[in-house]
């Protein structure tokens, strides 16, 4: 064996690395803003409320189009293709914006509305908290297991070969963990790395993952604003930003896990599908985001199906009591179509990849074992799940607050919107429960995954929280007014 | 009753914010301070601070020896064969990431003879997560009878026949 020699020194690249990282975020955010400009329900939102959807739509749009181009047409995943796919939606968005611009109306005098200083302080606190994971992601190399074992490895293979149909995946000679896992995030990571010419140890994708936390919080702001008004929305978003798990936990913003992205896609999809005023455009946007969930993680498929089932219930309920703005079949079809297309794409991509180094839960699942285990293992599952739910270092008591607010504002749960979102928020927990019912190592699995299931259902649960909080605030305001 | 519940919930929220906001700001301060300390350092130096200079140097040596398009055998110290498909030793996973995009091949008991496995030149032995891996070069001979030469060997000089 040769002697171990000194590591060759490279030029300091910190400033360039920070710029490349932020460029990686812009690579998806700017096209996403272009997509949002083309969809009226998103176009009408204020910029903060639109940004979350824009980033998520950018990732699923750019990633989805490149996935199709690579898998169906063999287009190399190199700068020319990336440039075309990224620039076109930006141009379309700019053209759309320019065409819709009207001369500014003459200003008319109205009551002066001072900006609420508490809302500004809350926004500053949220920004300061989000700065922490961003700084950590930029300053330290990737050191989480799932990122190194699965997602980062897949991204490296895709980038090296310039295709999602990498030979290393299709040939079972090579040791690849979970080769059939949905490839959206590794693909997007590879695209960011390729665009900015990242070297071997230059991890110019870290901000790309951290930005999902910011996008998630913007979606929380929008969803809670729709359900409960501005005061409840900003309070809920502030409370939602603070649990350390979202920033620094396994699956959080400093990792390269896919759970934060899944939470964003699923949460944004449920807000647009189950809360927003139904229209074909909002349905299509929701469908694209749910398609992103399917392409992000295995759990995304049942989550997308659950969201569409809840939308179907909404459709049937409103059609029995038609009113202005009732959801129609076109709305539901626009939501379902992208999800179905992505199911087909993913199946087509997987068929050439021999599965290996994968637990294959579905393949080993027997329904009788599932139902039996779901009941008989409750004495093990419940205490362990509660232990992780109320883990102080990860949550700082957030879920205690959640239960207290729900209890205080429980009449809000009479609203169909709140009930739909509560069900949507509990779906990931049900998926986890099913996995624990059949696993051969229940306690370990709960420890590894339960908090991430809480993360996945977080956005719908914050909408329920805000609805209950809004109810409580209105009661108190009413009492104060009566007493005065 | 309900008003008292609402007041109690709001008081709990105030308490939560009083605790969680300073914790969040402190976490941000600590990360910013750590980022400032590594500002200007090249990626290798940052990795050495996190993973240890010996580990980083060993990985660099392996990267220089094994071209990106050439595979290597990967095993764990004291355990040359994996027991099953779900056997995923931490040390091997850790090293494999740092050698990407090079393809890794692992040995499992009971595998039939394979044309390609016998033509892999390099063996990387992972010792423990964060501990320096060891690189060994395997003697290279002509392809086994009935096997074509592996694609990664086509650029190399003609091989000597097997004894």
What keyword list fits this structure?
heterodimer; A: 484 residues; mainly alpha; 0% strand; globular; disordered N terminus; B: 163 residues; alpha/beta; 2 domains; four-stranded mixed β-sheet; 4 helices; 42% helix; elongated
Please characterize this protein's 3D structure:
- The complex is a heterodimer of chains A (484) and B (163).
- Chain A is mainly α.
- Chain A contains 23 helices and no strands.
- In chain A, α6 (145-161) crosses α8 (184-195), α14 (300-320) packs antiparallel against α15 (329-350) and α14 (300-320) packs antiparallel against α21 (416-438).
- Chain A is globular and about 75 Å long.
- Chain B has 163 residues and is α/β, with parallel strands linked by helices.
- Chain B has 2 domains: 1-39; 54-145, no CATH class.
- Chain B contains 4 helices and 4 strands.
- Chain B has helices at 2-38, 43-51, 53-65, 90-98, and strands at residues 72-76, 104-106, 122-126, 134-137.
- A 4-stranded mixed β-sheet of chain B has the order 2-1-3-4.
- In chain B, β3 and β4 (134-137) form a beta hairpin.
- The longest helix of chain B has 37 residues, at 2-38.
- The radius of gyration of chain B is 26 Å and the shape is elongated.
- The model of chain B is unreliable at 159-163 (pLDDT under 50).
- At the A-B interface, α5, α6, α10, α11 and α20 of A face α1, α2, α3, α4 and β2 of B.
Largest interface: A-B, 77 and 72 residues
Helix residue percentage of chain A: over 70%
- Calculate Rg of chain A over CA atoms: 23 Å
Structural class of chain A: mainly alpha
* DSSP strand tally of chain B: 4
Backbone CA Rg of chain B: 26 Å
How is the biggest beta sheet of chain A arranged?
none
In N-to-C order, the SSE pattern of chain B is HHHEHEEE
Largest sheet of chain B, in brief, is:
4 strands, mixed
Proportion of residues in helical segments of chain B: 40-55%
Mean pLDDT of chain B: 84
- How many domain modules of chain B? 2
- Low-confidence regions of chain A: 1-13
């Amino acid at each position: 064996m040769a002697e171990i020699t000194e590591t060759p020194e490279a030029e300091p690249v910190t400033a360039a690395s920070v710029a490349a990282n932020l460029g990686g975020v812009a690579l998806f955010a700017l096209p996403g803003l272009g997509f949002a400009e083309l969809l009226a329900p998103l176009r009408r939102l204020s910029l903060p409320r639109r940004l979350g959807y824009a980033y998520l739509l950018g990732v699923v749009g750019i990633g989805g189009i490149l996935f199709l181009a690579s898998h169906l047409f063999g287009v190399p995943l190199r700068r020319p293709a990336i440039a075309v796919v990224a620039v076109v939606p930006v141009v379309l968005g700019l053209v759309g914006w320019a065409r819709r611009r009207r001369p500014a109306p003459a200003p008319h005098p109205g009551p002066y509305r001072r900006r609420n200083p508490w809302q500004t302080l809350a926004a500053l606190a949220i920004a300061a908290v989000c700065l922490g994971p961003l700084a950590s992601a930029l300053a330290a190399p990737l050191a989480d297991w799932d990122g190194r074992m699965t997602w980062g490895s897949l991204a490296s293979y895709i980038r090296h070969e310039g295709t999602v149909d990498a030979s290393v995946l299709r040939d079972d000679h090579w040791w690849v963990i979970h080769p059939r896992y949905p490839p959206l995030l590794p693909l997007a990571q590879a695209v960011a790395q390729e665009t900015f010419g990242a070297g071997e140890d230059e991890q110019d994708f870290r901000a790309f993952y951290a930005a999902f936390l910011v996008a998630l919080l913007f979606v929380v702001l929008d969803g809670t604003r729709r359900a409960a008004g501005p005061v409840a929305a900003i309070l809920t978003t502030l409370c939602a930003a603070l649990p350390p798990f979202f920033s620094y936990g396994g699956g959080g913003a400093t990792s390269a896990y896919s759970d934060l992205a899944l939470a964003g896609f699923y949460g944004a999809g449920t807000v647009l599908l189950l809360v927003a005023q139904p229209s074909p455009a909002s349905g299509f946007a929701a469908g694209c985001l749910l398609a992103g969930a399917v392409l992000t993680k295995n759990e995304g498929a049942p989550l997308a199906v659950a969201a569409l089932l809840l939308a179907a219930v909404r459709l049937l309920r409103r059609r029995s009591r038609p009113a202005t703005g009732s959801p129609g079949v076109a709305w539901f079809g626009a939501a379902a179509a992208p999800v179905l297309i992505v199911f087909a794409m993913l199946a087509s991509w997987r068929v050439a990849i021999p599965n290996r180094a994968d637990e294959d839960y579905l393949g080993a699942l027997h329904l009788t074992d599932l139902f039996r285990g779901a009941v008989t293992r409750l004495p093990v599952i419940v205490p362990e799940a509660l232990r992780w739910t109320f883990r102080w270092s990860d949550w700082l008591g957030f879920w205690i607050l959640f239960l207290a607010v729900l209890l205080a504002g429980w009449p809000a749960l009479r609203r169909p919107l709140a009930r739909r979102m509560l069900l949507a928020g509990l779906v990931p927990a049900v998926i986890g429960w099913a996995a624990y019912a059949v696993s051969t190592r229940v306690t370990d699995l709960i420890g590894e995954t339960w908090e991430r299931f809480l993360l996945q259902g977080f956005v719908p649960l914050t909408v329920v929280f805000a609805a209950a909080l809004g109810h409580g605030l209105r009661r108190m305001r009413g009492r104060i007014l009566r007493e005065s | 009753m309900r008003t008292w519940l609402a007041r109690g919930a709001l008081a709990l929220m105030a308490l939560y914010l009083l605790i969680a906001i300073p914790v969040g700001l402190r976490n941000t301060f600590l990360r910013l301070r750590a980022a400032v300390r590594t500002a200007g350092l090249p990626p290798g130096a940052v990795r050495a601070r996190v993973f240890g200079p010996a580990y980083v140097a060993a990985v660099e040596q392996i990267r220089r020896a094994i071209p990106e398009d050439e595979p290597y055998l990967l095993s764990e110290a004291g355990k040359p064969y994996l027991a099953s498909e779900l056997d995923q030793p931490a040390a091997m996973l850790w090293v494999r990431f740092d050698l990407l995009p090079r393809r890794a091949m692992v040995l499992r008991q009971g595998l039939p003879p394979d044309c390609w496995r016998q033509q892999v030149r390099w063996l990387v032995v992972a010792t423990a997560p964060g501990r320096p891996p060891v690189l060994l070069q395997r003697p290279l001979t002509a392809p086994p009878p009935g096997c074509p030469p592996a694609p990664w060997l086509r650029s190399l000089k003609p091989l000597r026949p097997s004894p």
